[in-house]
Amino acid sequence: MNNVYEYYQKASEYVRKNYLGEFEYFRDLKIKNLEQFSEKEFLGEFAWVVFTSGFKVARVESKWEELEKAFNGFDPNKINEKSVRSAMQIINHEGKCMAVLKCAKLINKNGFKEFKKKHLTNEDSMEKLPFIGPVTKYLLARNLGMDKVKPDRWIVRISRNFKFHDHEEMCKKISEKTGDKIGLIDYVLWRYASDTKKTE
User: Which residue among 30, 32, 66, 96 is least crowded, i.e. fewest CB within 10 A of its CB?
Assistant: First the structure.
């Protein structure tokens, strides 16, 4: 590819063809006031980030309905040790399953309003949540509607191949050129590169 804009155009065409629903979701995702999120919606997004971290997304996608059922629809008031045991029958990773329980307990401790004040003000506050780290905090922030790009290995590799200072600069340049939101650009580049293994 001659430049990153051509690469992004090709990636965008690929994603629209193969993942139109996901493309439209991130294209239309509005920056939400966190007051609009219910406890269940948030915990579902949290669980998605936790389970896809280090795992193939396709594997988690294929098990998602079962996980949602095991965790009682991600209702923090109904998640307990039995939920964890059920979830581990689906994806046998105690750390990830326990992270959902721990997060549910944090929500229940002082209520969702106080939880949001403490843990959801920005991506750095999200890093204090169970199983959320310096990369996944950006993914969680993006999935909650913040216009963020995560330093995923595919995104970082693409930015290096096209000689950008860093991944954020690359996504900002693409956004300026195309008008697409940074969160959408992040998703499109990640999905295309992770599927095709093409990073230039």
Answer: 30
111: which DSSP letter? -
Write down the residue that tokens 């229940």 correspond to. 108
Among candidates 182, 148, 127, 145, which has minimal Cα distance to 34? 145
CATH code given to domain 35-143: 1.10.340.30
Q: Give the domain ranges of the chain.
A: 4-31+149-196, 35-143
Using alpha carbons, select from 56, 101, 95, 93 the residue that is nearest to residue 75: 101
Output the pTM of the full model.
0.79
Q: Give tens-digit pLDDT for 40-97.
A: 999 999 999 999 998 988 899 999 999 999 999 999 999 999 999 999 999 999 999 9
DSSP state at residue 8: H
Q: How far, in whole angstroms, is CA 54 from its chain's centroid?
A: 12
